[in-house]
Amino acid sequence: MITVGDTVLQWDDPLVIAGLIGAAVLLLMIVLLITVARSAGRAARMAQPMMMQMGQLNQTVQNLGTGQAQLTGGLESLSKSQSMTIQTMEVRLAEVQHKMAERLHENAMRSARSLSDLQERMNDTLHGSSEKTTKSLTQLQERLATIDRAQTNIEKLSGDVLSLQDILSNKQTRGAFGEIQLNDIVSKALPSDSYSFQTTLSNGRRADCLINLPNPPGPIVIDAKFPLEAYEAYVAADNKDAQARALTALGQAVRVHIKKISESYQIEGETADGALMFLPSEAVYAELHARLPHIIREGFAARVWIVSPTTCMATLNTMRSILKDSRMREQAGEIRKALRHLHRDVEIIGEKAGKLETHLRQAGEDVAGVLTAATRASKRADRLDNFDFEELAPDVTNVVPLDHPKG
């Protein structure tokens, strides 16, 4: 590629090739002239060959001129073809530009419609999202209000729990708490005349609850006290050694309490040969059965049965059945006497029914006789209504009076 001013020439351009050939020819002629000038001395000797060479060179130059002319014609034809190609390309480019403009216009219109639809959908979506957001915020506010109320209740409950802890921390108040729970369970399970609370026994001990069961087994005591301090120490233990020591202390405390109940509430001839130790907590009951089963067996041996609120209710329901059976046995004599009277009343009813049947049968026979007489009287009345008394006048004496019907 050759740049001359603002003109750029390509090496494969025919005009450039022709110009280069011409320049080469001129350069060759100059070289030859220089050679001839330098060889002037030898020119005379070599004139004839030089003339021949000049003739050949002239012929060559003519041939080059002819070729240049042909090349010029070819270049002109090529230029015309190039012009036609350029015109054709311009026409096609114009068509392509027109089609591109149309397609761009269609794409612009399609994009505008798509954008409009998208904007409508976005508006609908935003409107729906706004409604959902408003609804969600409203629900969130309601839930926050519920949470606030729950928080208030939790704070109140925390205060109540703290109060309960204060109550349970005191041995006397804890005993009262157990007694209240026991009273509630017993009052729901048994009749009001079958139990009593805070009853003083002959040995001066006061029973939390005394169930008046019949002999056997006799009245049975339920004790509502429990050594909770030992259990709390076991729960608060933070390592295995401390837990083992606290568990041993808990077993010892329960063992002492079982012995106290056995000695205080099992009085021969006054109470049953056994008693109940009430635990106001299912957790303590489960822990004793899981960790201290030998203590439970010792309680069985001492005839002191440990019960929780659930097992106490089941035990009281069994006692209710025992009371019901006992009262039914007490009323068995009255029931038998009432049955004898009932049997006599049934016999009297049978006798009255037999007499009534006889009277009814007689009344039925009387009614049947009356109906038969009424039928005969009706028939005779019909005959009398149809009689001709003049024809029957001589036989009037044969007429049977109505007041004395036959058979």
Provide an overview of this structure.
With 407 residues, this protein is of the alpha/beta class. The protein has a domain at 172-334: Trna Endonuclease, Chain: A, domain 1, CATH 3.40.1350. Helices cover 74% and strands 7% of the residues. It is built from 10 helices and 7 strands. A 5-stranded mixed sheet has the order 3-4-5-6-7. The radius of gyration is 69 Å and the shape is elongated. The model is unreliable at 160-164, 389-393 and 395-407 (pLDDT under 50).
CATH architecture of the domain at 172-334: 3-Layer(aba) Sandwich
Please give the largest β-sheet.
Answer: 5 strands, mixed
Residue share in helix: over 70%
From the N-terminal CA to the C-terminal CA, the straight-line distance is: 169 Å
Order of helices and strands: EEHHHHEEEHHEHHEHH
Q: What does the average pLDDT come to? A: 77
Percentage of β-strand residues: 5-15%
- Biggest sheet, spatial arrangement of strands: 3-4-5-6-7
Model regions low in confidence, pLDDT < 50 over at least 5 residues:
160-164, 389-393, 395-407
Structural class, from secondary structure content?
alpha/beta
InterPro entries: DNA_recombination_RmuC
Keywords: Coiled coil, DNA recombination, Membrane, Transmembrane, Transmembrane helix
Protein name: DNA recombination protein RmuC homolog
Function: Involved in DNA recombination.
